Amino acid sequence: MKFNSALLITLSFIGLYLAQAQENNLNTHKDSLNYVLNQYYELNLKVFQQNSTLKDIGKIFELFTDDFTYVHPNYGGVYTREDLYNGYKRNQKNGGYDGSVVDIRIENIIYGLNAITVSKRFITKEDGRVVEGDEQMALFEFKNGKIFMIKEYW
To answer: For 133, which of 11, 64, 118, 122 could close a Cys bridge (C-beta 3.0–4.6 Å)?
Structure first.
């Protein structure tokens, strides 16, 4: 009888430990994805300012895997990491980053295994007033703690 009680208590503790470990693992995974996502948007907001530099652009690209892909069907389809980097540089050189974007507000996030779907909106300054843009959806996929693919659905 003592053996059965001890076994039951031991199995209960093991079950509790495994459940806690699984919950901590999910929180850690979710937190790490969220950290990279927030870094991505913070760095983009910095690049969108008039005084941004090539170094600021480079910091965004440190978040990407070497085989990163950007997909935006509404703006031409699939872009390699190099294509996107050149686009950032071109926009910066041509004055496309003029400080009109004052914030990027995340409205909703759905977490998956190595993926996040985001609903966000750009907050811009137009004619001296702050304007909320339309909600936009994006899917982020991750590999080894870095962004592997971004697919925009707007």
So the answer is: 122
